[in-house]
Amino acid sequence: MTRVRDLSEEQILERIVPLLPRGSATLLGPGDDAAVLAASDGRFVVSTDVLVEDRHFRTRWSTGYDVGRRAAAQNFADIAAMGARPTALVTSLVVPGDTELDWVTGLATGLADGCAPVGAGAVGGDLSGGPCLVVSITVHGDLEGRPPVLRSGARPGDVVAHAGVRGWSAAGLALLEAGLVRTPLSPAPLEVTDGVLLEDAWERLVAAYLRPDPPLAAGVEAARAGATAMLDLSDGLLRDAGRLARASGVRLDFDAGAFAKDRDALHSAARAVAAATGLGDPGWGPGTSDIDGLTGRWVWAGGEDHGLLATFPAGARLPAGWTAVGQVHGLGEVGVGEAGVVEAVVGEPGPAVTIGGELPADQPGWDHFRA
Amino acid sequence: MTRVRDLSEEQILERIVPLLPRGSATLLGPGDDAAVLAASDGRFVVSTDVLVEDRHFRTRWSTGYDVGRRAAAQNFADIAAMGARPTALVTSLVVPGDTELDWVTGLATGLADGCAPVGAGAVGGDLSGGPCLVVSITVHGDLEGRPPVLRSGARPGDVVAHAGVRGWSAAGLALLEAGLVRTPLSPAPLEVTDGVLLEDAWERLVAAYLRPDPPLAAGVEAARAGATAMLDLSDGLLRDAGRLARASGVRLDFDAGAFAKDRDALHSAARAVAAATGLGDPGWGPGTSDIDGLTGRWVWAGGEDHGLLATFPAGARLPAGWTAVGQVHGLGEVGVGEAGVVEAVVGEPGPAVTIGGELPADQPGWDHFRA
Prior knowledge:
The structure is a homodimer.
Chain A: H1 9-16, E1 26-28, E2 35-38, E3 43-52, H2 64-80, E4 85-95, H3 101-115, E5 121-129, E6 134-142, E7 159-163, H4 168-177, H5 202-210, H6 216-224, E8 229-233, H7 237-248, E9 251-254, H8 260-265, H9 267-277, H10 291-301, E10 307-312, E11 322-329, H11 339-346, E12 353-355
Parallel strand pairs in A: 4-5, 9-12
Antiparallel strand pairs in A: 1-2, 3-6, 4-6, 7-10, 7-11, 8-10, 9-11
Organism (chains A, B): Promicromonospora vindobonensis
Pathway (chains A, B): Cofactor biosynthesis; thiamine diphosphate biosynthesis; thiamine diphosphate from thiamine phosphate: step 1/1
EC number (chains A, B): 2.7.4.16
């Protein structure tokens, strides 16, 4: 078994670089001091994300391939959330010397498979030793002449819509932690569909955690359809929705039943997890004293689904892949709930997220730093 | 004393973001899913580099400010080496929870000071906890309509030229390791000039290691003056020159006396280091059994000077900051040395770097991974 410490930096790069896709916007790929990319409309979009071993992934569950797929996908979701088409990524990789070379080449293959659906290139990188695995990805995108879709553009009267899976990643992580699904998963990409989840489809939930498959095309389609605001859902639906609400200076009200079908679909996984770990396990967080609480937490507060949340003008026809899940209200407006509830919302110091007009129970989502 | 674990991710970002410069090419700065940058000629240049604690810097010598300055500078050097003007950077930062907040805000200030000379923006980032400090920077640049200057363009007959300091960074590191200069240095930027180094100017050598100041403008000027090939010198002059030679399919011959003045200027530091650590200390590497060997190693093999090496057509007028240091030869040509020496060069399997027609002694420079 070859470990990375057995090879020089240049020898490792010789194994990695041939695995990486060139991409349709790449004018000059890896091998020089820098790469050169096309920016068709004289602008480019850029975002960066870092994955740290034992914080964002665990090598006992995630192969190098999984981490590469996830790193590409979750970064491209940030590009899609601007309404842009992903064009290229660069990677900084920190690897302990005893890492197997196969893990590193697997990562490269995962990056390549993450790039493939959008035709993006993997155009450069840097490699260093270090005490734990760190994968830092910077992604780029092309707005193709459109204005970027910001978080700040939601207006009262807009429709709130969602694209992607809901709660699958948190459920998949819980299944892994409870030992209910074995890894590694098959390296073949698992198709994520919008259909009803079968009882025996736990592997799909685990795949959603290990290798999220964000609705990248839906971001571009939303921009074309006139989305007024959009963001990637990485830290939990309610937490990220709060960011959009604050940036726009509005209140986002979700339909109470918007995700009932999703919660139903997660019941079998929740029952199994509860049976394996004990119902109301403190690790599941507040409000999870029963199965319904657990599926609610997965859907409303679970991180890393990397779906997209957007707002559209009232009456706009939602593009394929998008589901209406709520409405945008002004801060001073009377909500849809009972009088006492509306007062609580109006009394908030700033914008808020409500579910059926009510402030949700405390489900703060994920804080990368304190975790 | 505030440590990062005392604050949430959002609270830390609230301290960092106001310190970061917007930059002249920034259309949308931090705060959304991604930033938007201008690409004036429909292309952009991108490069990434990672700095790992105890590999690329040590916190007992480098403040957060130093690491920020260095991270920006060494990345921008890669952009300059393409003949491009740096426009923007994004940062992924991994910090242990017990890191002082001042270290992180110092890093942001250092990044800002590294951006200032070129008007670049710091337009986004990501923050995570982790077991050691990791700073991953991705930089972008604008070719302003010019073709990129590649490593592969050197042609027989070209002049080899250099811009920047030579051996200062390695000498500065040696002075630190020998305990001859106290840190932290003053946060005021130390001017690096091309003049003769004073005997009492060791702080400048240390500053060249802690906060390199690459000749960024010289990269753009070289491109405008018709440079045929160029690269950033990060892993040592001979090692990096070999990369340019291989990419171009040529032999690079340095004038034997090209850097004699630089070596003379480093003599006082070398004498002091040798007195402190013992002459011929195995830590100094091969060929360093005397003072002259030590200064030679610093100049020819010392890493992280982040000067630029370029080739220009014969007779081209070198821009300000550039010094002619050698010539480009074809692989089959007869060199300038003695017959036996030339045979050795011709007998090499591929392109080579020579000094006065002779193959240099083994001074391989820096391998990030094996170090």
